[in-house]
């Protein structure tokens, strides 16, 4: 790999930005395309497909054989709330290839005994997210039922463009949440992205079933996400 290509990929990796390396198999010419970069012509659609799938492959385009190698930031799930649903989600997420972090300031819930082997931060989301900001490759699930804990990270997730934002609670609970988020400066369009009630509608009842429905909805959102655009 050429040094300038490696330099661009390393910079993208540090910034948690996606990149596709396009190699012309005839000439050996290499081009690095960052997500959000304007690409002209039919290559644009192929690059968009690659970003969504995350899969490398060869395509034939206008008489050229091109190899597209995709480099995506590892998708991650940030769960607000160390509850039973979080325990189940922590077991399921790695199977689907997602890193997972749980944040909850309530030390009675956020214990190593309940979340052995899980990245657990027993602190307020406001403090944690200062040093570990959310981004477009993060899914946020708020499951505490406590506005004092859930509202700030929900607002931050919408502002940061997280590919998935979900919140536990009934429609009545969510209606009150919507008003609070508006007071925090979020728009109707942003708030409309929140999956509430959380998870795909599979008739989930138990914490494990709700966790499964939530993970399925996260995967769906990731594969169907809008691509990052400049600005």
UniProtKB/TrEMBL annotation:
Pfam families according to UniProt: XdhC_C
Domain of life: Bacteria
Domain XdhC Rossmann residues, every copy: 77-218
InterPro entries registered for this protein in UniProt: MoCofactor_Util/Proc, XdhC_Rossmann_dom
PANTHER family hit by this protein: ALDEHYDE OXIDOREDUCTASE MOLYBDENUM COFACTOR ASSEMBLY PROTEIN (PTHR30388), MOLYBDENUM COFACTOR INSERTION CHAPERONE PAOD (PTHR30388:SF4)
UniProt name for this protein: XdhC family protein
Annotated source species: Rhizobium puerariae
